[in-house]
Amino acid sequence: METKNSKLKKPLLEVIDLKTYFKTDAGVVKAVDGISFTLSEGETLGIVGESGSGKSVTNLSIMRLIQSPPGKIVGGKILFEGVDILGLQEKDLRAIRGNEISMIFQDPMTSLNPFLKISTQMVETILLHQPMSKKEALQKSIDMLKLVGIPVPEEKIHNYPHQFSGGMRQRVMIAMALSCEAKILIADEPTTALDVTIQAQILELIQELAKKLDTAVILITHDLGVVAGLCDTVCVMYAGKIVEKAKTNELYAHPSHPYTEGLIKSVPRLDKAKNGKLFSIEGQPPNVIDLPECCPFHPRCHKKMDICTHTYPPIITLREGHEVACWLYSDDKEKTKS
Question: What are phi and psi of 235, to 5 degrees?
Fold first, then answer.
């Protein structure tokens, strides 16, 4: 699935060899270990993987929200419209965070202040980034709540967070994130605490608003079924690295990394036998503390070779825009290297 005119659109965000580590008493956790990707204007990028794969840390790094200590961005670049976010002073960073790049967190109840009315929180956000009067900011807040489908927004805006359902609180978070007309919206597992029906509504809402406002989206999820109809490009993460990256249709048609194959097989399908057993990947994600330089997926992989146990695979381009880090696709000369 390609974004319309994507070839004509310049990169809005470029992440280059990003490394974010956490120093602990047990050792160094390489939560994000040398990942690279680009996001174009109006594009929706999915970052998929199990818990602990580094998805959320990647996007907290983009927002420069890594708590230090123990965490630290130790290498790489994050270019937003050509400017390296990692080199900005805090004052300049505030002009981008929340204004140009906004984030929806997993649990809206912990993101919204329970002691403040929604109006106070939304107006404060807009006034921080936009040259408006308080009255204009309040009206814009009401308009945004209406845009995300909250009924009677001129009344609801004066309620407290606990007076909203989980789905409505998430809609409020989306409205706040987009109230400053951000160019990039990062959605970190935005449907985690919601039931299936509301999940579908929230994802559809994000998709509609992204198209309407021409906002680029980074969607973090553990579910490959979610990204199928929503994302243009997908990055599959495992143990802090991107193991496969491709356009969505290409990824589903030709899943190449054994981990990606396992994730796709794990998605329930209506065209499978009712009594069929749902596929699951054997084993557990690795401990990423002082992980050795080998393929971290090899203990769970049914296609592993000897080289997988002691050397990390190179990134190989299979087709245009389709990259995979797996020894299965390297030539024999590379496989014999130790």
Answer: -110, 125
Closest by alpha carbon to 54, among 79, 32, 82? 32
Model confidence at 281, pLDDT cuts 50, 70, 90, reads confident
In the chain, domain spans: 6-91+222-335
pLDDT tens column, 184-194: 999 888 877 66
Instruction: Kindly tell me the burial class for residue 114, based on how many C-beta atoms sit within 10 Å of its own C-beta (0-12, 13-18, 19 or more).
Output: exposed
Q: Which amino acid is at 287?
A: N
Mean pLDDT of 137-148: 91
Peptide bond into 108 cis (omega under 30): no
The pTM for the full model equals 0.86
pLDDT at 333: 46
Cα distances (Å, whole numbers) of residue 208 to 54, 204, 295: 27, 6, 39
Q: Does domain 6-91+222-335 have CATH number 3.30.1490.20?
A: no
DSSP state letter for 182: -
With residues binned 3-state (H G I as helix, E B as strand, rest as coil), the percentages for the chain, rounded to 5, are 35, 25, 40
Per DSSP (E only), the strands in 150-208 are: 184-188
Q: Which residues pair with 72 in a beta bridge?
A: 21
Q: What's the pLDDT band for 272 if we cut at 50, 70, 90?
A: low
| CA pair distance 296, 284, nearest whole angstrom | 11
Q: On the CB side of 318, how many CA atoms lie within 13 Å of its CA?
A: 20
